[in-house]
Specification:
This protein is α/β, with parallel strands linked by helices. It contains 16 helices and 22 strands. α13 links the parallel β19 and β20.
């Protein structure tokens, strides 16, 4: 984590001069939450719509052990018994502090964005790079305008590579994160339908994701999924070198002979066989992005293969669960969009050696005015996929069921608003050697269905 004197902190955060008495105070780490261990840290009082961290400054320093605090100049009554660094805006000061620290450390930074696959790519990238470097990655969902700076400031001085996930909800957010992190390489995993409600179209989403190139360091590389036309067709204003990856043969990096093997996936790049311990062709493209970066940073082929083979994927992302009853559950309940739903259906379709194939699908949230159409289309996507049953959960899941009933026998498609009833009916038909995939948006909490079936 960052370790600097308060005087150095003041300069890095573009704050006003502080009392000379406080110049040599040593700060070790930062925090915006007084519920965390504050000992020795700098407190960051963020001002939000419904909260103001300035009311906790005295508690942070005098009770929780923080060394000092930032203080936004437009906030009244700054405490006189606390070491303060006065700034115009505490959030901007946090971002400036993180950006300065990133440049002082001088590590390589890999930025990752995309509608789907950011976290899986982050996990794969980290595992691959850790074979050769000391790597720090985004923890959890610390991928926004507050979380990313906190991630950078939590790095140790000897970090060699930072793998930073960059999320967004609207225009300009990825550009801001890119300018803070100044990536050496930036990856766009894909363009889906997440954030349609805010951005209006997939074209708008593509333009927003391409903002990641804005902060690239001189000589930095933009690494994109070349199977996505919306990315390829919006590169005219991109000045950096672009590298493409995907399953189509006209990409710079192409995966061939993709095969599902047990609980993993095997594929070929030129003459080299790679294996990842997670299912699905969509995860092969995530692995491809990691391989590109590995090559750029000089990770040899043996370590690239080794790193991908031992990757540990964040829970509820194509997590294979072997149930006590002898059936297999693929828990992909972390989140969902139309793109990732279709990928999940393709994954289930491609599995061999099982009995019945059952798709358990929940609502996809934040899709805007066309949400019912998207859900209906996901149901119709079942056509010719070899899937025997479709069980849906949620209000919008009813539209998935309507679409599926156009393809399957209606008696094999069921819709629910109660998870316990859904689980009960599933247990009535599921047998040893059957396989299910469970997929839905985070807010649907479909991991509860997985638990009921395990």
């Amino acid at each position: 984590m960052i370790r600097r004197t308060l005087k150095e902190i003041q300069e890095m955060a573009k704050g006003e001069s502080i009392l000379p008495t406080y110049n040599d105070l040593m700060v070790e780490g930062v925090s915006r939450d007084t519920r965390e261990d504050m000992k020795g840290k700098l407190y960051i009082p963020i001002v939000g719509e419904n909260f103001n961290g300035h009311q906790f400054v005295r508690q942070a320093v005098l009770e929780k052990g923080a060394v000092a605090s930032l203080w936004q100049k437009d906030q009244p009554e700054p405490p006189s018994d606390v070491a303060l660094v006065f700034v115009d805006d505490t959030l901007e000061a946090l971002q400036d502090l993180a950006s300065s620290y990133r440049m002082e450390i001088g590590m390589k930074v890999i930025g990752i964005t995309g509608s789907n696959g950011k976290t899986t790519t982050k996990d794969m990238m980290t595992s691959l790079l850790e074979t050769t470097f000391k790597v720090h990655k985004t923890a959890g969902n610390y991928n926004n305008h507050i979380g990313l700076p906190l991630t950078i400031l939590s790095m140790t001085e000897d970090t060699e590579v930072a793998v930073l996930e960059m999320g967004m909800s609207g225009r300009g957010e990825i550009e801001l994160l890119s300018h803070i992190a100044k990536p050496d390489a930036a990856i766009i995993t894909n363009i889906g339908e997440s954030h349609l409600q805010e951005l209006g179209s997939r074209q708008g989403i593509a333009e927003a994701k391409l903002e990641i190139a804005a902060g690239l360091k001189t000589g930095g590389k933009l690494i994109i999924n070349g199977d996505e036309p919306l990315l390829l067709n919006n590169l005219k204003d991109i000045a950096c070198e672009v590298i493409t990856f995907g399953l189509n043969t006209d990409n710079d990096y192409v995966a061939k002979e993709v095969n599902l093997k047990g609980t993993g996936t095997q594929f070929l790049i030129e003459e080299t066989v790679y294996t990842i311990p997670v299912l699905g062709a969509h995860n092969v493209t995530n692995a491809l992005a990691s391989i590109v970066v590995g090559e750029l940073l000089g990770v040899n082929e043996e370590n690239r293969k080794k790193g991908l083979e031992k990757v540990s994927i964040t829970a509820m992302r194509n997590e294979v669960v072997e149930a006590a009853g002898g059936w297999t559950i693929i828990n992909d309940a972390y989140n969902a969009s139309p793109t990732s739903m279709r990928a999940a259906i393709d994954l289930l379709s491609g599995l061999t050696g099982y009995g019945k194939k059952i798709a358990v699908l929940g609502d996809m949230l934040e899709l805007g005015d066309q949400e019912r159409v998207f859900h209906h289309d996901v149901g119709k996507y079942i056509q010719n996929k070899g899937i025997d049953y479709v069980f849906t959960y949620g209000k919008l899941g009813k539209d998935i069921a309507k679409g599926a009933k156009e393809i399957l026998d209606s008696s094999n498609v069921k819709s629910y608003m109660d998870k316990e009833e859904l689980v009960k009916d599933l247990l009535g038909i599921i047998k040893k050697d059957d396989v299910l995939i469970v997929k839905g948006s985070r807010g649907m909490k479909l991991e509860q269905v997985v638990q009921g079936l395990s």
